[in-house]
Amino acid sequence: MEELEEKKEKKRVTFLLGLIVILLAIIVISIILLTRSNQPIEQAKKEAIAIARQHTNLSEVDHFYQFSRKKVYFSLTGKEKDGKEIAVIIPKKSGKITVLNQKDGLTEEAVRQLVQQQSPEESIKKASLGIYKGKPAWEVVTTSKNKTENYYVVSFKEGKYLSTIHNI
User: Are 154 and 161 contacting, i.e. CB atoms less than 8 angstroms apart?
Assistant: First the structure.
């Protein structure tokens, strides 16, 4: 009888150890995949900072954005050595780098407030700075109560809605 109990106990321990090993393997694989999936964005951020520093006196980076429309842009907001707040928009492919004085347009916080006031029932997922039809613009992505996404493109300088797409 004791031998039967010992066998059952051994099976339980073996099962639990196997389960722990499988769970640890899943956790390790998940961490590896998550790390690898973030590497391209981190690399793009490093490159964008290096390019921005070549064209400005950028000393401090506050935010990094990826803006994807017909073209992809990487953008940074931050401060120059003299304290002036700027935004730098860099096309993914070669092209003109745009440097903006942050006080001449909307900040991320301001554009989020603008969209939230216009669409209070939606929750904001992200805001990104880029170029839309040749002009600096913010793209704000929201989620509706029915779980659909909405895209708003807002002019950097005037805060006007340039494009709106609902219920995607």
Answer: yes
Domains of the chain: 108-165 (3.10.450.40)
Alpha-carbon Rg for the chain, nearest whole angstrom, is 24
Q: List, for residues 97-131, the tens digit of each pLDDT value.
A: 999 999 999 999 999 999 999 999 999 999 999 99
* Strand (E) or helix (H) holding 27: helix 2-55
Q: Which H or E element spans position 21?
A: helix 2-55
* C-beta separation of 125 from 141 below 8 A: yes
In this prediction, the residues of the chain whose per-residue pLDDT falls under 50 are none
3-state helix, strand, coil in the chain (%, to 5): 40, 35, 25
Angle at 68 between CA 66 and CA 69, to 5 degrees: 155
Query: Can you tell me which residue has the tokens 């304290």?
Result: 83
Closest CA to 164 of 122, 101, 134: 122
- 115 sits in the region (left: phi over 0; alpha: psi -120 to 50; else beta) called alpha
